[in-house]
Amino acid sequence: MNVNFLSTPAAAVEADALLLLHFEAEGRPAIASFEAADLSTSGWLTELESSGEAKGKIFDLPVLHRPAGFAAKRLVALGAGPAATFTPGLLRKITGAAVRALKAKGVSSIALFLDHPHAEAALATAAVEGAVLGNFEVDVYKSKGKATDLVSFSLVSPEDLAAAVAHGDTIAKAQNFTRELVNEPGNLLPPLALAARAQKMAAEFGLDCEILDEDRMRQLGMGSLLCVSAGSAEPPAMIILRYSPPTPSKDHLCLIGKGVTFDTGGVSIKPSDGMEKMKYDMAGGAAVIGAMQALAQLKPAVAVTAIIPTVENMCGSRSVRPGDIVTSLSGKTIEVLNTDAEGRLILVDAIEYARRLGVTHMVDAATLTGAIVVALGHVHIGAFTNNDEMLSKVMASAKTQGENMWHMPLDDDYADYLKTPFADLPNIGGRWGGAITAAYFLKEWTGGTPWVHLDIAGTAWLEETKPFLAKGPTGVCVRTFIDLALNWR
Ligand code: BES
Ligand code: ZN
Ligand code: ZN
Question: What pTM value is reported for the model?
Answer without folding.
Answer: 0.98
